[in-house]
Queue: 2 jobs
Job 1
Amino acid sequence: MSTSPAPSSAPRFGVNYTPRRGWFHSWYDFDAALAREDLDQIAGLGLDHVRIFPLWPLLQPNRTLIRASAVDQVAQLVDVAAEAGLDVMVDGVQGHLSSFDFYPEWTRSWHHRNVFTDPETIEAQANLLRTLGSALAGRPNLLGLQLGNELNNLVEHNPVTVADVDHYLDTLLAAARTGLGSTAGLVTHSAYDAAWYGDDHPFTPEASARKGDLTTVHPWVFSADCARRYGPRSPQVEHLAEYGVELATAYAEDPARPVWVQETGAPEPHIPAADAPGFARATVRNAAGCANLYGVTWWCSHDVDRSLADFPELEYTLGLFDATGRPKPIAQALAETVAELRAEPRPTEPRTTALALVRTPGTRSISGPGGAYFEAWMRLRAEDVRPAVVLTEHAEDETYLTARGIKEVVRPL
């Protein structure tokens, strides 16, 4: 088994930073003073970190040109966050954000290149990550470097195989590590839920759970229509992030590999505004009961201003703060929950009962909302059982089960 750094005794709690003025288009006219206002608001909630998203076309407008001024702006934002008392995770290749895809023009139109398979395009992305890593290395508040946000959202326009994805991820993760050098810092990647629930999706659970320094999960309540299927106050919704951590742990080779709930949020109308504070409390508390939890990072800090056009409706109301910078009730609920968990840290008891999951690439949907395995796990959870997830290949491996504290493995009916 591989060795992963153990999660800290106290999970981290943060938020994905969406600039209040101009959304991510604010990178075109970066203003450190305005960013500092946003970051001070975030720090005021008692959160300890942010995740940031510089846009790929601005960083690398030509395959062989990385703009030094754009890289400097990323470094400056990390430094401004440090002044606010916040640590920072930097996503390198954006990539996909809130239903928009950001490609440099040299990958599109007459110059179209598959971003996952074209050798020169892969090397260009690797060079960008090496450059970012080198520019950011040594900053004490840098959590690390992630390849990019939910890169598997790009597969529709960039057909790719599982083997291609593995090569792509391995190449870029190595480049990010080279850029950061010997400095302490995580190197990670992220995928949206199709990696876990999508039959035959080329980004696999194994890639998410075995590549990089920890596993990231983005358990959204709209995936597979979870909230509409079960209801916004249902156990299936309130335990979804917890389930995502346990599912990810099952696919890891190292039983102690940390899992980061890197995106979760309360999208309307899936979670009505009146239910959002309760949803936030339940989600964070339930996830905090997972032994391998690295942290929870809420999506997102600030609402998208309605002066900006063409976003899906739910994107306009996902923030902890509204578009004027005022905290919403969900912000208060999250802040109080985080403070309570930090004030009264509790040891996480092992999950002694596990539910066996058959790993079959073409039937991943059984583990997603509406799937037979998902519903069996949630039935146990509603009965006050705290089930782990274990792949059937490990169901009789006593060494593995002991390492996870599992004493009983049951199979779905």
Job 2
Amino acid sequence: MSLIETTVEGTIESDGTLVLDQPTNLPAGRVLVVLRQEAQSQSVHSVEESFFEMMEEIWTSQRARSHIPRTMAAVHEDHFELQGQIEDEIEAAIRLQKECRHRRKQTEIETISP
């Protein structure tokens, strides 16, 4: 017996009956129904409010422990330092790749030459 499954949304009426939003594509016969209440969607306004409430909590906590945020100059300095490190790593990788190609050619030449 193969399992055929589909998902259809619906509404439970006040008398307890279930009204499906659309007909199912299942054949006639007994089915097992699993009901899961849909989470109430928050309006955009309430999502924005909860975000800013969370941010206020974070800022209040930071002030309470005397947190001093980094200055823009410090952020830019770190950014440029990291960017320099990345460029150095890329250049090192390119040098390593060139060295490997050179050694591979040397090995091929030594293998071919008697």
